[in-house]
Amino acid sequence: MTYSTTRFGIYEELKATSPSKPSLPVLIAMASASGFVGGIAGNPADVLNVRMQYDAALPTNTRRNYKHAVDGLVRITREEGWRTLFRGVLPNSMRAVLMTASQLASYDGFKRLILLHTPLEDNLPTHFSASLLAGGVATTICSPVDVIKTRIMSAQESEGLKALLARVYRAEGVGWVFRGWVPSFIRLGPQTIATFLFLEQHKRLYRYFKGVNEIDDAV
User: Which of 20, 68, 166, 193 is deepest in the core (most CB within 10 A)?
Assistant: First the structure.
């Protein structure tokens, strides 16, 4: 919630305050800035999420056994210090930059192209098509960073990014870059579609209740 709320909120606010219709490079810059801040805001929850998901795979004597999210955050802070909540914040923030730029900016870009070059109007089929394409772009761009982020956050000991990359390359070659792309798309594709379909309907309702004309600033 902290991650997505931050990045979507900042991105939409930047678009709304733009003096003119943003071009695609400007949208990418806005999305990148929004994603970086969102990555920092969401890092503690991401560290906790990765640890709780991978806890069952650890030997019994090394499992953390957090009772719930609040217990996990409290124990991490008390046992390892608050800095642990921001372990991997740089690759996580860079991943958030890539995710937001490839997801939000590409959605607006694809939507603009669809409206300009096809008979489709600003409706559900257009939103579905643009979000499906954006999901594919986001999955492809973010896959390498997802692998790195997961390995850093699930590590028992702190390891530098350079050392981690060297070790993974020696063990797995270049194939690690897109390891798990299909399951990532199966997860991210529907999530991207659902997110933008909901967002478009939410914006439409907001305009209706505020008495604002149906104008999409991204197009």
Answer: 193
Query: CA 195, CA 193: separation in Å to the nearest integer?
Result: 5
Query: CA angle 113-116-119, nearest 5°?
Result: 110
CA–CA separation, 154 vs 17, rounded Å?
39
> Rounded to an integer, what distance in angstroms lies between the CA atom of residue 8 and that of residue 31?
8
203 φ/ψ angles, rounded to the nearest 5 degrees = -65, -40
Determine contact, residues 55/98, Cβ cutoff 8 Å: no
Report the chain's C-alpha Rg in angstroms.
Answer: 19
Q: Is 41 helix (H, G, I), strand (E, B) or coil?
A: helix
Average pLDDT over every residue of 190-207 = 90
For residues 14 and 18, give the distance between their C-alpha atoms in angstroms, rounded to a whole number. Answer: 6
Query: Cα–chain-centroid distance for residue 159?
Result: 23
Using an 8 Å Cβ cutoff, are 42 and 96 in contact?
yes
- Distance separating alpha carbons of residues 93 and 51, to the nearest angstrom: 18
- pTM of this prediction? 0.73
Residue whose structure tokens are 């560290």: 47
- Please report, as a single letter, which amino acid is at residue 132: L
- Distance in angstroms (rounded) separating the CA atoms of residues 201 and 199: 5
Q: Within its chain, how far is the Cα of 41 from the centroid?
A: 12
Q: What pLDDT, on a 0 to 100 scale, did the predictor assign at position 156?
A: 60
